[in-house]
Amino acid sequence: MTAVQAPFAVVNKGVRPTIPNSCLPALSQIMTRCWDANPDVRPSFSEVVMMLEAAETEIMTTVRKSIIRSNLQYAAISALRRLPLDPGNPAFLHRAVQGVLFSDPVAVRHSLEILSELASKDPYAAAMALGKHAQPGGALQDVLHLNDVLARVALAKLCHTVSRARALDERPDIKSQFNSLLYQLLLDPSERVCFEAILCVLGKFDNSERTEERAGGWYRLSREILKLPDSSSKNSATISYYYGLSPFLIPKIDSNYSSSTQGMGNCTSSTQGI
């Protein structure tokens, strides 16, 4: 079967591609007619051209509205970004959370940067406001696949701030959701995002960690690496290279901490003065 014959064979079997939900109704109607099981019902090439010309106005109007909406979203979040940070203002927080739902990637990035700063001041309020967006299928999950490296970097910082907040110790469910997002960023294809996620897991991105926090960070990081199908994979090699370690040392870190976690409480109490 040649490449030209293959599409006809698929169509004759009644198999059709799935039409996306976001497809314009005019285009959806044209595709449905072109894929009709009865060849006599399918439009000719000239008829398809005429239908596309008739739908051009609807298509261009939709595209124009999308561009205008994207520009307005960017302008709104940029204006919010220029305002002084106001952690105690619920309206300010609400607008920042709304930005996570925007279609413009740069607007989403600015929103996450604002939320990261707000979370450093009031992590409980930020976590409660983001609530459902951190759940599976939420807006923060979509950011993992957003075509904006800096937006994913901001997400890593936000997840670290919330997941390590003492104010949320009584809400382990929320902390685990943000932890899950942070650990997924360890597998990000961008080295910039991957390294930022590593720094966040280790608690080093703001250089404010204590000795016991760094120890806990290394334990968490090595534990997540060992969950990968192959601990000597690209991610282990990348992490090892970044910290000047040989790849074979990564599994050893986990085994060392596994044997010493029973004394982690003693480590915490003995390093208070460091």
Automatic annotation (TrEMBL):
Where the record annotates domain Serine-threonine/tyrosine-protein kinase catalytic, the positions are 9-51
One of its Pfam families is: PK_Tyr_Ser-Thr
The leader peptide range reads none
Q: Report the domain of life of the source organism.
A: Eukaryota
The record's InterPro entries line, in alphabetical order, gives: ARM-type_fold, Kinase-like_dom_sf, Ser-Thr/Tyr_kinase_cat_dom, TSET_member_tstB
UniProt name for this protein: Serine-threonine/tyrosine-protein kinase catalytic domain-containing protein
What does UniProt list as this organism's lineage? Answer: Eukaryota, Viridiplantae, Streptophyta, Embryophyta, Tracheophyta
